[in-house]
Design goal:
By secondary structure, the protein is an alpha/beta fold. It has eleven helices and 14 strands. It folds into two domains: 220 residues, Rossmann fold (3-Layer(aba) Sandwich), CATH 3.40.50; 67 residues, Alpha-Beta Plaits (2-Layer Sandwich), CATH 3.30.70.
Length: 311
């Protein structure tokens, strides 16, 4: 087991930031950690890194107790923090080289790994430049190079795409996938729900210091009894068409506009075939069908009562 947390408790005065939380993360997965601001995500991450002292429970990384084997464990962990952690008076190469030394790399091995890390994030041609000249996306990529230079088993990425352009964001997401393909376990937090939905193999939703839901993207969606929606493009649909579709038992709601029908139905009980038949039987020409399934944002909002971006 890469991460095993049992009955973790962290208090700040009378405030319970981590409330008897238990969690397991298996080797080789991308674990998406979601939660509104104040849910306890940062406290949990800092606890796993040994930066925050907890009042109860146990944290094991790589099946070793964090408190007992901290010095051994930290050599196998890389961190991409939410706030940029780079030195602008050092070149890109010197930044990565500094962190390589902190992780105990030396000599030719250190040089090779620094070059590999810079190449991985696409900064080899910028290695002699100072980060103050970099874009936000390049600085984020440099932070990733610094986190992976020692080739850790676990990489924790806390909001790694905040405030960057779409191209850099896509590059970072692709680097996450490649790292994972190399066998590295990733813990990934983001305020962009679609990122987690797209890359995570397992997702935990955290609120008020607890993991309130855990599973794959599909499993989390199955927790909630959502409606599914379909849009049918039909030229000038009439009321008789609406009335016929309303008689389908699984249809919950239907509305008409100038050129399409919007229909909502019970999840898992799709009436698309029946709707298409009614449209064609009444002499209309169907020009398109779009189906919108429940997404992770709806799950999150239903379980926490908050948007992921709520303050």
């Amino acid at each position: 087991m890469t991460v095993q947390i049992q009955d973790l408790v962290k208090r700040y005065g009378e405030d319970l930031a981590i409330d008897h939380l238990s969690l397991k993360i298996v080797p080789g997965e991308i674990f998406g950690l979601l939660g509104p601001n104040g849910a306890g995500k940062t406290t949990l991450i800092n606890s796993m890194l040994g930066l925050t002292k907890v009042q109860g429970g146990e944290i094991q990384l790589f099946e070793k107790n964090l408190n007992t084997y901290y010095d051994q464990i930290k050599k196998d962990v890389g961190v991409v923090p939410q706030e940029l952690a780079i030195y602008e008076d050092l070149t890109a190469y010197e930044n990565v080289d500094l962190f390589a030394g902190l992780y105990g790399l030396k000599g030719r091995d250190k040089k090779e790994k620094v070059e590999e890390a810079l190449a991985f994030v696409g900064l080899s041609d910028r290695k002699k430049q100072f980060p103050k000249k970099f874009s936000g996306g390049m600085k984020r990529r440099l932070n990733i190079a610094m986190a992976i230079v020692h080739q850790p088993k676990l990489v924790i990425m806390d909001e790694p795409t905040v405030g960057i352009d779409p191209q850099s964001r896509n590059q970072i997401l692709e680097s996450v996938r490649i790292l994972n393909q190399r066998g590295i376990t990733i813990i990934y937090t983001s305020h962009y729900m679609e990122e987690v939905e797209g890359i995570a193999s397992n997702i935990g939703i955290m609120d008020k210091g607890r993991i309130i839901a855990l599973g794959t993207n599909k499993e989390l969606k199955e927790l909630i009894d959502f409606e599914e929606r379909g849009s049918f493009t039909v030229e000038k649909p009439g009321l008789e068409l609406q009335e016929a579709i309303e008689k389908i038992p699984s249809v919950n709601n239907i509305s008409l506009s100038e050129d399409h029908l919007s229909v909502r139905w019970k999840k898992g009980d799709s009436p698309i075939g029946e709707i298409v038949k009614i449209i064609t039987d009444q002499g209309y020409t169907l020009r398109g069908v779009t189906v919108k399934e429940p997404n992770l944002e709806q799950v999150f909002l239903t379980l926490t009562g908050k948007s992921l971006r709520d303050g």
